[in-house]
Amino acid sequence: MSVKKFMYINRKAPYGTIYALESLEVVLIGAAFDQDVSLAFIGDGVYQLTKGQNTEAIGQKNFSPTYSALGDYDVNKIYVEKESLEERGLSVEDLMPLTYEDEDDDWAEKDSIRLLSRAELADIMEEQDILFSF
Amino acid sequence: MKFSIQINEGPYQHQASDTAYQFAKAAIAAGHEIFRVFFYHDGVNNATRLAVPPQDDRNISAQWTALAKENDLDMVVCIAAAQRRGLMDADEAKRQGLDADNIAEGFRISGLGQLIEAGIESDRLVVFGD
Predict the structure, then answer these.
(1) pTM of this prediction?
(2) What is the ipTM of this complex?
(3) Which of A64, A131, B6, B130 has the highest CB neighbour count under 10 A?
(4) Digit-coded pLDDT (tens) for B13-33
(5) H helix or E strand, kind and range, residue A27
(6) Is the CB of B81 inside 8 Å of chain A's CB atoms?
(7) What sections of B14-106 are H helices per DSSP?
């Protein structure tokens, strides 16, 4: 089976609509297909990665810990758009630290999150075969 | 060209399913192949056979059923999204101990792997929704 470049573009806040949660479900299932996978977080999608999420008052499940498991699924290219963070008064320090173990580098723990400018992200999108938009 | 289609929104509330239907019809008419139509998020609601829209309006799920029949389309409803929203085929209803099923003819319930496979096997995956 051929390997394609799959990018999951996450554009919406984690709660309020179900897109973020169901996007993550596709990512987890898709990880079994050994494709070249990346995730992009743009617009309100950057809120999906903020740390300290607490959903108690809205009576919904806090699924944010699942993002920390992505490294174990070999999903380790997580692009966050810099402008989207800045427009919302956020910085990378407000995001959960997401890491993976690099099998090509003696399993060294590395950061999965890469901050990219809007223009850089556009270039990476251009390289993809499949863009899932959630 | 080999297309797959993903529909992320429910019928009537949103135009995604209508536009996807028009796209599918036009693609087939132009000689293209539709590898799969995948219904996700609220898009699973397009698969109900219990919708009764007013007589002077289109019946969206019936349109899909007819198009699938004419062109042997593979229409897949995501099982995880369907279970959340109460879309059941007879087997799944039985497994869950439910007293009814509601999937229209031509749709089948399966997993998200079918969506990934559609991406791998098709030249283009076209997503309809917000």
Answers:
(1) 0.92
(2) 0.88
(3) B6
(4) 999 999 999 999 999 999 999
(5) helix A19-30
(6) yes
(7) 16-29, 60-71, 79-85, 90-95
Is the Cβ–Cβ distance between A30 and A18 less than 8 Å?
no
| Encoded amino acid at B76, one letter | V
**pLDDT-based confidence at residue A2 (cuts at 50, 70, 90):** confident
Contacts A–B by Cβ distance under 8 A: 46
pLDDT in tens, B38-51: 999 999 999 999 99
Among B78, B87, B103, B104, the active-site one is B78
- State CA A77 to chain mean position distance: 8
CATH top class, domain A5-133: alpha beta
CATH of B2-128, one of 1.10.3720.10, 3.40.50.1700, 3.30.300.30, 3.40.1260.10: 3.40.1260.10
Confidence of residue A1 (pLDDT cuts 50, 70, 90): low
